[in-house]
Amino acid sequence: MKKIIFLALALIFVSGCMNTPDTENVTDVKNTTTVQYNTFTGRKPLEKISYKASDPDNKNGLSTAKKEHSYGVAEGGEPHSISIENQKYFDSVSYNAIAYDNKTKDKNLYLTFDCGWENGCTAKILDILKKENVKAVFFCTLNQIKTQPELIARMINEGHTVGNHSASHSDFSEISRQQMADEIAECENYLREKFGYTSKLFRFPEGNYSESALELVSSLGYKSVFWSLSYADWDVKNQKGKDYAFEKVTSRLHPGAIILLHSVSQDNCDAMEDIIKYAKEQKYIFKELK
């Protein structure tokens, strides 16, 4: 009898050893090794790309007339009619461009910054965004990316989007279609090589574009991001104080607003936390732009 019991227990033990281990209790040694790449973010570099402009000579005859983006001053929690008409146009031509979010009536806000050079404000803005758990898009020129790699890496690593604002901030309504493609590719490839990063959001320098430019940017797979809320904040020699910035931004809030601010503005920096808190108190929700 003892021999039978012993054999039975032995069979149970062997059977248990043959079962597949519980994966939650197994450590894969291969996954414990962290690879640190020689980029500013520590991410793996991405392969460079090249963009060849479709219809480089514009034989399809798309308009090259310059359009200077205008948005109108929103009032009473509603977008200005100019912004409404802009978005109607973008939707009608299907060139993947946005001036404000007209797809929902929810009180969504999209915070964006244009960054062409550094004035000592961006790090503090990032501190406030982190504290308030708000994600933004920073549209950066190649100059900003090259001269401020630590700030750019911080944006990326803290979950913000670094958008393409071109290599040299050229007026896209005045250059050829291939030059446009080259401007975007140069900025894109630096982000790929030095940061292991890519983004498909683009903002036209100074908001100047043409129908041909819109189509070209869209053909490269990018979304052109305009805005429906902004104010004259870029002149660092004509700052008017945090209260001024607060009033200009908060009085123009509306559902679906794409907010454009400049990171060089000390007024924006000083007012940022109050602007975000006020918007939240008014039940606005800061969303990530995709």
Description:
The protein is of the alpha/beta class and 290 residues long. The protein has one domain (73-231, 240-286): TIM Barrel (Alpha-Beta Barrel), CATH 3.20.20. It has helices at residues 2-18, 81-93, 122-132, 142-147, 149-157, 177-195, 211-219, 242-250, 266-281, and strands spanning 67-68, 97-98, 108-115, 137-140, 161-164, 201-202, 208-209, 223-225, 257-262, 285-286. Strands 3, 4, 5, 9 and 10 form a five-stranded parallel sheet that branches. Residues 1-30 have low confidence and may be disordered.
Shape: globular
Mean pLDDT metric:
91
- The total beta strand count reads 10
Strand content: 5-15%
Q: Could you list the spans in which at least 5 consecutive residues all have pLDDT below 50? A: 1-30
Q: Could you say how many structural domains there are in total?
A: 1
Structural class: alpha/beta
Radius of gyration: 25 Å
* Strand and helix order: HEHEEHEHHEHEEHEHEHE
Assign the CATH superfamily.
Glycoside hydrolase/deacetylase
Briefly note the CATH topology name. TIM Barrel
Major sheet, described briefly?
5 strands, parallel
**CATH architecture type:** Alpha-Beta Barrel
Roughly how many Å apart are the termini? 72 Å
Q: Tally the helices: what do you get?
A: 9
Give the CATH level 1 class: Alpha Beta
The percentage helix is: 25-40%
